[in-house]
Every structure is written in structure tokens, then in C-alpha cells.
Design brief:
alpha/beta; Rossmann fold
């Protein structure tokens, strides 16, 4: 059984039909990428899976539990972390305070150990732990958003455009961290505009176009697919 199963998802924004019968699955331990142009529905999928948006029809099943109607905070408790597009850190709070916000579902006695783990993943965050999050660079804020999600001890991590607006150096760092997170046993569902980067670290991928999944397959095969190269890889 897949860790995450999405079946026949239909989502609307008012009269706009944003997702059309979207179905896909993520197996435990995989990195699965969702790629597609802006407006294809990638972020809408993540918002619906994590309980931020309601579906008109269809279902989301996580580790055998139907979570379609559950609110976001309940889904976090079940073991799902979501790193939103645009990072959305709390700018007036320190780095350490932001990280603690990510542990609101955890017993207080476990938070210190989790903070230390996150600082091992992201040494730069420890260096800046007393600094207001709003003063960090874009790449550092992305690390903070990821670290905050990791504080909830997720079994699956939803990442929405982690490389957006970052320098090539930071993009490389962020993707190395995603690979480390995956290697340590966390399943990853990755939405990423940089299709080449996403496919280079993913096990499998789904291609979205105007709210429909039009193609799926092993990421390495899609990376070498001529139609994908032309449409999404700039080749």
C-alpha cells in the first residue's frame, strides 16, 4: 500500500476548475516530483493534500487513513510536513522561535533534541538562531522553512518550489539537503519549477498541465524524454 494515495481529486476556485480527476501515489521512502508550468495546479495539489484547501470530490489517503476532510493541524499530527511556496517564515521571530513553532504538535520534552537535529541538518540556522528571521537571506529563509517543517518529525515532507528565487549556489545546497532528508528515511513530495533539478533527484514524477496529469514515469526516463525536454527542460 502506498504511503500517500490521491484519487480522482477535483478542486475549484469559485467557478474555476483547478484540478481535474487528479490521481497519483507516493510510496514510502520515495522522492516523487510534480512538474509543470506555472498555473498547472501543482501548489493546489499540495494545499489540498495538506488540508489547506477543500476538494469538491475525490479522496486523499495517508498511511491508510482518509484525510480528505481533516483540517491542516490534524494532518500535521499524523506525520505530514508542508513547506509552503514563498517560505512564509515569521519575520519578527528569531530563527529558534520559528523552529519551535514547527513543533507545536510535539511533546515539550522532545523539542530540544529536535532542535539539535535540525541544527545538524542546517548549521547556518544554529549560527543565526537568535537573529530575526526577516533579516535572513532568501536561501537561509528556505532552510528555516524546511527546518520548521522537520521539527514536526514528518514521515512525508511536501516541498513547494524550494528553489524559487534562490541563487544557483543556494539551489545546489537546498537540493543536497533534500537528498539527505530522503536518505534519512523521510518520504518527499516535491513541487518544483526547476524540472531538471527535480527530475535529477526524484525516483518518479508526474507532469501536470492545466489541472490534469498528462504523463507519469520514472524520473530518469522523463529526464530523457524528448517532449519533456522541449516543454520543461529548455532543450
Amino acid at each position: 500500500m502506498a504511503m500517500l494515495e490521491v484519487n480522482g481529486l477535483n478542486v475549484y476556485y469559485g467557478l474555476i476548475h483547478a484540478l481535474h480527476d487528479v490521481s497519483f501515489h507516493v510510496n514510502e521512502g520515495e522522492v516523487v516530483a510534480l512538474i509543470g508550468a506555472n498555473g498547472a495546479g501543482k501548489t493546489t495539489i499540495l494545499h489540498t493534500v495538506s488540508g489547506l484547501l477543500g476538494a469538491k470530490s475525490g479522496s486523499v489517503v495517508f498511511e491508510g487513513k482518509d484525510i480528505t476532510k481533516k483540517p491542516g493541524h490534524s494532518i500535521v499530527k499524523l506525520g505530514m510536513g508542508h513547506v509552503p511556496e514563498g517560505r512564509r517564515v515569521f519575520p519578527g521571530l528569531t530563527v529558534a522561535e520559528n523552529l519551535r513553532m514547527g513543533a507545536f504538535t510535539r511533546p515539550k520534552g522532545e523539542i530540544a533534541a529536535s532542535l539539535n537535529e535540525v541544527y545538524e541538518w542546517f548549521p547556518r540556522l544554529e549560527e543565526r538562531k537568535n537573529q530575526p528571521a526577516g533579516t535572513l537571506s532568501g536561501g537561509e529563509q528556505q532552510m528555516l522553512a524546511m527546518g520548521r517543517a522537520m521539527m514536526s518529525k514528518p514521515r512525508i515532507l511536501l516541498l513547494d518550489e524550494p528553489s524559487m528565487g534562490l541563487s544557483p549556489l543556494f539551489v545546489g545546497e537546498i537540493f543536497k539537503i533534500i537528498e539527505k532528508v530522503s536518505a534519512a528515511g523521510t518520504t518527499v513530495l516535491l513541487v518544483e519549477q526547476n524540472a531538471k533539478k527535480a527530475l535529477s533527484i526524484a525516483d518518479r514524477a508526474y507532469v501536470l498541465e492545466t489541472g490534469n496529469i498528462i504523463k507519469e514515469g520514472v524520473a530518469a526516463d522523463l529526464l530523457n524524454d524528448d517532449a519533456i525536454k522541449k516543454a520543461y527542460l529548455g532543450e
